[in-house]
Design brief:
mainly alpha
């Protein structure tokens, strides 16, 4: 609807008309095309991002404990850890992103077919096309996110332990 407004120009209802048109022409699956690779990509990206951020920050603080003393150095550690974590998570999730892009480029192509098309066209390197720019972009964005997160924790005097939730359930 947003990408192709002319396609739905004759619709009287601003939202329901395009929904009906897409449903009639392409079926229910059109609304969920690319959903599975999107979820897979986001889950992989998120898990790797948090794992590497926490692991790197702890490793840096274990190597140089004096960096915990000042808010500025903690912020620097968060930024560096976020930069590396964002880059690594982008690299790890790049194949899923390539499959998602291929399913979006070719309507009616499912994720398995998209993976086969990528493999047939370019082999393994096809899954990593554009990885460098994505790593740089995501690394900077994630570094900024974690730096802001760490800064807010600092000004609000909140520690990581304060953010942990433990449930003590006895049966």
């Amino acid at each position: 609807v947003v990408a192709e407004p002319d396609r739905f120009a004759e619709c009287r209802l601003p939202f329901l008309g395009p929904v009906r048109t897409v449903y009639a022409q392409e079926g229910l699956d059109a609304f969920f095309a690319g959903f599975r690779p999107l979820v897979a990509r986001q889950v992989i990206f998120g898990m790797v991002k948090f794992f590497f951020f926490d692991s790197l920050a702890e490793a840096i603080f274990a190597f140089a404990p004096q960096l915990r003393a000042a808010a500025a150095t903690r912020l620097g550690v968060a930024f560096v850890s976020g930069l590396i974590a964002g880059s690594i998570s982008s690299l790890v999730s790049q194949p899923a992103d390539a499959i998602l892009s291929k399913t979006n480029d070719r309507p009616g192509v499912n994720p398995t077919q998209a993976a086969k098309l990528i493999w047939d066209q370019d082999g393994l390197k096809g899954f990593y096309r554009g990885a460098l720019s994505r790593c740089l972009w995501a690394g900077c964005v994630i570094a900024g996110q974690f730096a802001i997160y760490d800064y807010l924790k600092s000004i609000l005097s909140v520690s990581s332990r304060d953010l942990a939730l433990f449930l003590d359930v006895s049966l």
